[in-house]
Amino acid sequence: MEKFYQTESDPKQLSPLTFAYVGDGVYELFVREYIVSKGNCPVKKLHSRAVSFVRCEFQAKVLSEVLMPLFTEEEKEVCLRGRNAHVSHVPKNSSVADYHAATAFECVFGYLYLKGELERLRLFFDKILEFAETEETAHAQK
Fold first, then answer.
1. CA-based Rg of the chain, rounded to a whole angstrom?
2. What pLDDT shows up at residue 141?
3. 126 is a catalytic site residue
4. Catalytic residue among 10, 24, 98, 126
């Protein structure tokens, strides 16, 4: 079991929005580490690159097209709980459906992190990067 702060907790006792809260930070750290590994550049450029990964539209698309087929039954249940969680607001630039899907995406990341399943998260992030590269190539060909 691998976590930054080595404390015992039972993820099954936490709410889906708590998972999403943690998952947002975990996923953001994956994204930032990946972007920084590509080389040094101005912070403004780092931020704009990160935004392309953390947009709820992107997360919703990745969830449905990449991650859902890879999920275990337990991960699917957590995802469903996250998607159905009551959120207090939806950003004006996002659809309700995309926002709920992004919450589900982050919920799974938070749940797996709290369980200490970093290898599983790394696998998912590698698949996300493959998808992002494919999307970028397709967009460049248009």
1. 15
2. 63
3. no
4. 24
